């Protein structure tokens, strides 16, 4: 199977090279057969990568310990569930997995548009093939996952060697979320290749109008949705597994995933300016280019070891390849832009500063500043070492100080944007639209202040959350009311009808509502309290309304690990509430590596988060660290809303047809009935 | 002379009143000062927050910090001692002096530069004539409204 996998990868590389070279020749000669054959070569590349990926999975499932990659990342006792995840747990496999996910996108694009957009697709095919060639080069010649173990015999020949068992999977990855977090994040990273390919292709082909944006809008949203899910799942994994009580530590790998998300989000907003007003064409093209470049840069940061991170699982000297690839992309993009920049001239004028257009400009400015601030903060240790010889760390306090004001400003614009009209917004309209949302913001700030959440940033955040939530509510209410009046439906069904008539717009509002929930959760971080204590059995410690009593400890044996479990009785306001079981796992295989399993009791108000933090060095007694994390659950709820909103925006809008109402009884005399129909336009508010 | 009862009362006040307050103050100071440093186990977490399983550094670093705080060392002395022992990678955030000042000032510079750019773009867009005629490659002049209509039609036709 290893030979099959290697061969499939090599053949995929050959097909991709043909798709690139043949594609360029096809564009120049405009030979239809050549163009068709390169498209088919592109499809074949994808199928061959699928086969290679499945063959590596087969090596895991069949416990083939002649394979170096399987030995490094699996063992016999590893459950089937985690054998799937072992595929992307190391450098070589994760790069193959990257190619696999990219191939799913590429094949989908080639199949969906096989008979459409004949002028554009050859260019798209060439760009996609170029990206695939880079990853296939890594898969074949730099980091092959199909290397076999071997011993050099006395005669100098290499003899195959089979190990009895493997080293096992990294314990941090043996958690259910780790089976879905990397695929989501990688699907986000790879998904941004599609809008990049279309943008570059449109620029190279001077493809008229904004059609490339219409074509790639859904692909961008799919990639963005995966990226959002990946980031949130990663945050939840950090919260539940790393056991430090938080969900976001501004780790370089976390930052790397946030960078393309920020520019991707900016693009999803600014793209409306081009669609509605024909503006920001240069900006949009460069936003897409930048998003893709940041995806590659993020991968480079994770894998090169240039910045240190607790969850950079696959570090090596592969970084120089990514630097080279980044350079090539940058040169190609820049050359295409310089050659065809006249094609990107803006068409419209701005009527007023107080308009939707301006709000989009400032929204994009803030997203970009956030992106550059995170990037420069992440790379500052490297720069400081270059310039001063001392590596100066940039940790979470720096990022919090910089990013909280930017985040709040973005939240403010989330509320303001929908209240402003395209073109120009009158003072009267401003007064009418802003009154209730501002009042809602003030009420929510007062309520949270009254219940004890008193911190300047959190109060401002919760004020803005109330403000934005109310603007979203008003948007739905006003539109639904119009439909309800015309159709006689109740408000709830009218709201549903409204959303289905313009799924993109109202799906966007649902996403915004999800972001409001996430910000409510983030506001709670200012009020986290924790206590750590070395405890003997029977000892207790107090945390907020809870009293934690360490009752006893036991051990739990699993096929792949042995868990040492603390049994903690929780009393709330003096009454027995529950038992919690924080545990520490000792895994087999990897030199007795250990992992943690946090016990979390989660409510909308707060999470009681209990960690078995190890044993005291002096007394050998267990150390229990407990946190009271307010409002964290809102973050995960918000994430669900973000996904639901994106899914809604992906659904095609319901077509609204012009319906002729039954004509009134014909008038007895003068007017012919056919000339006097009562036209009822069942058009929703937009 | 203080009576035995008074001495006992004073001792009790000291033991149950002042000692816990002093201990609490020390513990608060350890938390405050400790939040300015990173744990050196490579986890990129603030020293007082790092408790990931298998961490070999945070316990000893916190112990050191506790000793210095108990001795009454100043914040500057503690910072200097940590930097001497672990290097500048121990900072949780860059110091606001020297080269590190760049890290703090750059986001503001990006924002100011971006804001100036946005204002420039807004002014440029506002100064454009209301109804621009665009010339197609064939030489036909097309108004912005016509382009908007064409754009809307393209949007409808491609909205799958």
Output the keywords.
heterodimer, A: 686 residues, alpha+beta, 6-stranded antiparallel β-sheet, 4-stranded antiparallel β-sheet, 19 helices, 60% helix, globular, disordered C terminus, B: 160 residues, mainly alpha, Helicase, Ruva Protein, domain 3, 2 domains, two-stranded antiparallel ribbon
Characterization of the model:
The complex is a heterodimer of chains A (686) and B (160). Chain A is of the alpha+beta class and 686 residues long. Among the domains of chain A are: 1-168, no CATH class; 527-634, no CATH class. Chain A has 19 helices and 14 strands. Chain A has helices at residues 2-29, 32-61, 68-73, 80-86, 91-112, 121-142, 176-191, 193-205, 211-242, 252-277, 281-304, 319-340, 356-388, 396-416, 427-450, 456-487, 491-501, 503-523, 632-650; strands spanning 150-152, 158-160, 529-534, 540-543, 546-557, 561-572, 575-580, 583-587, 594-597, 599-602, 606-615, 622-630, 659-660, 679-680. Chain A is globular, with a radius of gyration of 29 Å. The two termini of chain A are 57 Å apart. Chain B is mainly alpha-helical. Chain B folds into 2 domains: 4-93, Cytochrome C biogenesis protein (Helicase, Ruva Protein, domain 3); 100-158, no CATH class. Chain B contains 5 helices and 2 strands. In chain B, α1 (4-34) crosses α2 (58-71).
